[in-house]
Amino acid sequence: MIPSKNCLTLISSNGIEGFESAPYPDSGGVATIGYGTTFYPNGTRVTFKDEPITKEQAWSYLEYHCNMVAKQIEPLIKVKLNQNQIDALITFVYNIGIGEFKTSTLLKVINKTPYDFLAVKNQWLRWVYDDGVKKNGLIKRRNVEFLLYSKPV
Fold it and tell me: Are 25 and 31 in contact (CB under 8 A)?
């Protein structure tokens, strides 16, 4: 399982993550930089005191983390998925984290009926809350992700 350039481009777009050169608080207050990076590839957590980074550095961090997410997802998926479905899942898990995904009903539905788009969509679109509050940004993100998941290659 490998993220395509399409996956990286989707995450880095302004509709999903967008680029910030300096550390900023995400919606949960976590120090974030680049295209949603909270940990550098060396395992160090991003802090609000970190120096700004370039778009090239941010892309490198994004690529690294998407590859890590792909490796985490791969043993959990028991069915054959196309590249768009893989990219959509990587984008999704990049946002929610592997711990949440491992125990999700979405994972169960995908492993049981990956092409039952209505069932997958119903689970996918449930992930629009941050601290119990429905967020318009997450609604938009989940719709974009699911559109990619359901798009034929």
Answer: yes
87 is known as an active-site residue: no
pLDDT above 90: residue 13: no
CA–CA separation, 3 and 63 (whole Å): 8
Distance (Å, rounded) from C-alpha 87 to C-alpha 144?
12
Against a cut of 0.70, is the pTM above it?
yes
- Compute how many other C-beta atoms are within 10 angstroms of the C-beta atom of residue 40: 17
Whether 50 is a known active-site residue: answer no
What percentage of the chain carries pLDDT values higher than 90?
Answer: 90
Nearest Cα to 94, choosing from 132, 47, 48, 141? 141
What CATH number does the domain containing 13 carry? 1.10.530.40
CA 47/CA 24 separation, integer angstroms: 9
Q: In which domain, by residue range, is 132 found? A: 5-149
Catalytic pick among 26, 50, 63, 100: 26
Residue 45 DSSP code: B
Question: Would you say 19 and 58 are in contact if contact means Cβ atoms under 8 Å apart?
Answer: yes
Q: How many domains does the chain have?
A: 1
